[in-house]
Amino acid sequence: MGKFLVRVFIKNYEDTQNPEVRKKYGMLAGVFGIFCNIMLSVLKIVIGVLSGAFSIVGDAVNNMSDAASSIITLISFKLSGKPADKEHPYGHGRLEYMSGFIVAVLVLAIALNLLKESIVHIIKKTPINVSIVTIIILSCTILVKLYMSIFYMYISRKIKSTAMRVTAVDSRSDCICTSVALISVIVMLVFKVNIDGYAGAIVALFVIKAGIEGARDTLALLLGEGPDEELCEKLQAIAGEYEDILEVHDLRVHDYGPGRRFASMHVEVDAEIGIIRAHEIVDEIERRIVKDGLVSEITIHVDPVDAKDEFSNTIKKELEEKLKIICDSITLHDFRTVHCGDTIKRVTFDITVPYDLGTPDDEIKDTAIKIVKGLSGNPEADIYIDRS
User: Fold this and answer.
1) Element containing residue 158 per DSSP (H, E)
2) Burial letters for 43-70: b for 16+ Cβ neighbours within 10 Å, e otherwise?
3) Would you say the pTM of this structure is higher than 0.90?
4) What is the pLDDT of residue 131?
5) Which terminus of the chain is less hemmed in, N or C, by CB atoms within 10 Å?
6) In which region does residue 194 sit, left (phi positive, over 0), alpha (psi from -120 to 50) or beta (all else)?
7) Sign of the torsion formed by the C-alpha atoms of 58, 62, 64 and 68
């Protein structure tokens, strides 16, 4: 059914790298969600009011919030598809992440209110009136929500959308919420025990959990989440295929929305190949990376080094080994020495350490300077710290 809808309403549906096609996927999901959620919400409100079951009314309100979320999704996909302009040179793609965050906050607000009302119903022990019809209708709504979750997850994977994944998880949570409401109805019918208020509280807690997870995921993207390891490995692998590239470091990826990733990295090359040849190599690497669709744009900085300076290479290895007292995974790059024979006058290099290393940069630098001072000639040191 999901694939059928996509094929009917989206031309060139396989071209998911096309921003226009991607926008249509999001808009289709938005319209589908608005229709289904309003239909379910109205149905549950009628059942809840007639039966007096607060857990069902609460679930109906949750569906209404989902309809509002679908409207936000619809608008965000339309706006995020706008091309870059003077005011927004990197495009409007992060609007999709913002919509996901807004949806999560909306879900949280409604869930907290639902939890409060559930506690009131537990205290007051409000009576409810349910029937077999109630069970049948709730069972049908569970199936509809389950299908919606599958449909949203399908679109999420097709267009690699975090906002759609958040919506899919929310729909799956709704299945659980409605199932809890259904259990409370069955318990009332079979055992004549009213657990409606407790069921409403459980529903609220499930929705709160989904809201927190959705807010966390989308907020991470808005703040600038680091690239996944697979992407970094692919970028480094392409550069590593060229024998003149001696080392790759300082890789950075900036995410401005789906299909709008910009990257930069430094590569070390032997100074003897010349600036023209080095420029040709990095140009070719940049073109390959963009052509493969790994990022929208990449800038590569060339760091020339004297690869045949065996003395400097030996000193670099010696320092790298000694600096492991700071961190086992420490690496050095942009390494240069000014020396006369075996006497070193100046050493310049960058140190790369992990982000999660607790040692402050100043302390790392001071330790490195002390180690450099122990070399022959008591050399000066120009040291810079990078985190990766």
Assistant:
1) helix 132-159
2) bbbebbeebbbbbbbbbbbbbbbbbbbb
3) no
4) 75
5) N
6) beta
7) positive
Query: What's the token pair of residue 382?
Result: 């120009």
Q: Provide φ and ψ at 231, rounded to 5°.
A: -65, -45
**Distances in whole angstroms, Cα of residue 158 to Cα of each of 154, 164, 307, 365, 386:** 6, 10, 45, 46, 36
Long-range Cβ contacts of 27-31 (<8 Å, 24+ apart): 27/74, 27/77, 27/78, 28/155, 29/70, 29/73, 29/77, 29/151, 29/152, 29/155, 29/164, 29/167, 30/70, 30/71, 30/73, 30/74, 30/75, 30/77, 31/70, 31/74
3-state helix, strand, coil in the chain (%, to 5): 65, 15, 20
**What are 189's two structure tokens?**
């019918």
Token pair belonging to 346: 């100046």
Q: Please measure the distance between the N-terminal and C-terminal CA atoms of the chain and give it in whole angstroms.
A: 44
| Over residues 344-348, mean pLDDT | 86
SS3 84: coil
Q: Which structure tokens are listed for 208?
A: 């709160």
Residue type, 374: G
Q: Which tokens sit at 69?
A: 């979320």
Distance CA 27, CA 39 (A): 18
Q: How far apart are CA 38 and CA 42, in angstroms?
A: 6
Token pair 């993207």 in the structure block, residue: 221
∠ CA(47), CA(53), CA(54), 5° rounding?
Answer: 110
Residue 298, token pair as written in the block = 């990449």
Sheet holding 331-340, edge to edge: 331-340, 343-353, 380-387
pLDDT at residue number 59: 67
d(CA 141, CA 85): 44
Q: How many residues make up the chain in this entry?
A: 388
Half-sphere exposure of 162 (CA within 13 A, CB side): 27
Per-residue model confidence as pLDDT tens digits over 147-177: 999 999 999 888 888 778 878 877 887 787 7
Nearest by Cα to 76 from 112, 123, 27:
27
Beta strand residue intervals within 72-190, DSSP E = none
Angle between helices 132-159 and 162-191 (to 10 degrees): 170
Strands 331-340 and 297-305: unpaired
Tokens in use for 36?
Answer: 């289904």
DSSP 92: S
HSE of 289 in the Cβ direction (CA atoms, 13 Å)?
A: 29
